[in-house]
Specification:
The chain has three domains: about 30-95 and about 535-578, Roll (Urease, subunit C, domain 1); about 95-100 and about 245-535, Metal-dependent hydrolases (TIM Barrel); about 110-230, Roll (Diaminopimelate Epimerase, Chain A, domain 1). Helices cover about 35% and strands about 20% of the residues. It contains 18 helices and 26 strands. It binds zinc ion (ZN). Zinc ion binds near residues 100 and 269.
């Protein structure tokens, strides 16, 4: 009996042990690790096909842990240290990806004269005169953001709508002045700046640039494209330490602007090695909150010596990736710098740059393409005019054909603004990404017809719909500081193509709201090979989340521009709260 009892007892213990193990196991499955942060009571749009919307989202270890539609379902993720944020019905979307901007330029735009609101050349002269009052003799006065087509009236006298320097020089006899166009593709200088830069009537036009001159051949103070670099801007006598401190300040200012505007990843379109070193240092110190996707801009020779070593992916906890090279094939349409197949409609036939400017030699482009494809770099080329785009596509195609073993290259054309009908399908056929800026369309629209004429504008200007129909994936950005970084203004431009005067620019090319959201999130991630990490609110991906005050997918169209960013969350940390 004793033996039987003992045996029975053993079986009971064994069964009990299995039962406990089973329950513990089940409990472990039922009660997940507590979340660091949970967003509740919101409309969460995941941009992930499997989870279109959710009511709450839990974040753990910097990644998205879980989402749910049951309003109380988040409770099992709550632990002692969990922060719970009540969204109060607000919209949470994947962190916005600014897919083409200039990070240091954004920082700098916060430190120099803002000329974006000037309504005339007289306004600008007055702004500079005011700045000159507090400037020390010899100190440079710099500004950015003017646009002659946004002025109420043309300056008199003018050449191609651009002012003579005289009025500016009169109010700044002691200070050199350099004022950059909104596009960054032209600049205005005063007499002092030209004197210091030794610019005279005999100074020739550099390749890919133009000095605007009066009838006698004297420079009027306006410099286009590469000619801008003739005006040498010396930032006083800053010591290396002062210069370094200034650069850090620009990174801090740019980061703050991104966070305030819900931008969690920023594609920095044209960067030096020195700036990459600064980004890396600041990231390692925890002083770079925004994730940067960097495009290197040094020439092919410099790249050949230093480029391969600079390549990095997901460095410093996915804050810094350098795997792209940036090139500039042409200029901008506004300054007649975009390289066109046919002459500008608004230039006189004897203008020597009747079809715009080619700002990078084809040989240099080809050398860069070769370096990029052989060293695992993506190539991103600025091309605005239809000729600039065609030449770039031709160079890409040639490089791809020479390396049939290399696939999924995702080379990009930045702007892809004005395209020949024949080239539109080539983007998808070649797997080339048109990285576009919706806000450029509505900003430029007032003068696009002047530059191109109705027929060419209708066929190929900002043709998002045609590109998408042909199979292209379009990421969108703002090209900040060319435009403001404001994603709501950009989103509004994408879905309305509506100008300030209420008219719409070829509305058949609009994006739907879903497409525009995808363009600002998933497509930006794709354009950076980061779809496994970003672009949707999917468990396992980085917890980069933007929360907006209104549901921009359903609210009245005119409410989109006033929508505010309530929270910007990067890696599960709330880095901005409205
Ligand atoms: Zn740009």
């Amino acid at each position: 009996m004793a033996t039987r009892n003992r045996r029975l007892g053993f079986v009971v213990v064994l069964v009990a042990l299995f039962a406990v193990l089973f329950i513990v196991n089940r409990r472990m499955k039922l009660a997940p690790e507590p979340a660091d942060l949970i967003l509740v009571n919101g409309k969460i749009v995941t941009v992930d096909a499997k989870f279109p919307t959710a009511a709450w989202i839990a974040v753990r270890g910097g990644r998205i842990d879980a989402l749910g539609t049951d309003p109380k379902g988040f409770n099992r993720h709550v632990g002692d240290g969990t922060e719970i944020v009540d969204l109060g019905g607000a919209l949470a979307i994947p962190g916005l990806i600014e897919s083409h901007g200039h990070f240091m330029g954004l920082g700098e735009s916060k430190t120099i004269l803002d000329l974006t609101k000037a309504r005339s050349w007289d306004d600008i002269v007055a702004l500079v005169a005011e700045a000159a009052k507090s400037a020390k003799p010899g100190e440079w006065i710099t500004g950015r953001g003017w646009h002659q087509d946004k002025w109420d009236h043309a300056p008199e006298p003018n050449v191609e709508g651009l002012p003579f320097h005289d009025a500016l020089s009169k109010v700044t006899p002691q200070n050199p002045v350099l004022l950059e166009h909104a596009s960054g593709h032209s600049s205005l200088a005063n007499a002092k700046a030209m004197e210091l830069s030794k610019i005279t009537a005999t100074t020739g036009d550099p390749d890919g640039g133009k000095i605007i001159r009066d009838a006698k051949g004297n420079a009027i103070g306006a410099f286009l494209e590469t000619a801008q670099s003739l005006v040498r801007y010396e930032a006083g006598h800053a010591t290396p330490d002062e210069a370094a401190a200034q650069s850090r300040k620009l990174v801090e200012l740019a980061s703050k602007e991104c966070l305030t505007h819900g931008i969690t990843t920023f594609h920095d379109a044209g960067t030096s090695f020195g700036t990459v070193d600064l980004y890396k240092k600041m990231a390692e110190e925890g002083a770079l909150p925004v994730r940067l996707y960097v495009m290197l801009s040094p020439d092919s020779r410099t790249l050949a010596s230093r480029g391969a070593a600079a390549r990095m992916i997901g460095a410093v906890d996915n804050h810094l990736t350098v795997r792209t090279i940036k090139r500039l094939m042409d200029g901008a349409l506004g300054s007649h710098g975009a390289w066109l197949l046919e002459p500008y409609a608004d230039l006189s036939p004897d203008d020597k740059n009747l079809t715009g400017l080619n700002t990078e030699s084809i040989e240099e482009m080809k050398a860069t393409a070769k370096f990029a494809i052989e060293n695992g770099f993506q190539l991103a080329t600025h091309a605005i005019g239809d000729r600039g785009n065609r030449e770039t596509l031709d160079i890409y195609e040639e490089a791809f054909k020479a390396h049939p073993d290399k696939t999924d290259l995702r080379w990009r054309i930045e702007h892809a603004q004005h395209l020949s009908l024949a080239d539109i399908p080539r983007f998808a056929q070649l797997g080339v990404i048109p990285a576009m800026q919706a806000i450029h369309c509505t900003s430029d629209a007032p003068w696009v017809l002047k530059r191109l004429g109705e027929k060419r504008a209708a066929e190929g200007a900002y043709v998002w719909r045609k590109l998408m129909d042909a199979g292209s994936i379009i990421p969108i950005g703002t090209d900040v500081p060319v435009e403001l970084i404001d994603p709501m203004a950009n989103f509004y431009a994408a879905v309305t193509r509506k100008l300030k005067d209420g008219t719409t620019f070829f509305p058949d090319q609009k994006m739907t709201r879903e497409e525009a959201l995808r363009a600002y999130t998933a497509n930006g991630a794709f354009a950076a090979f980061e779809e496994g990490l970003k672009g949707s609110l999917t468990p396992g991906k980085l917890a980069d989340i933007t929360v907006l005050s209104r549901d921009i997918l359903t609210c009245p169209e005119d409410d989109i521009p006033g929508t505010e960013v309530l929270y910007t969350i990067i890696g599960g940390k709330v880095l901005y709260r409205h």
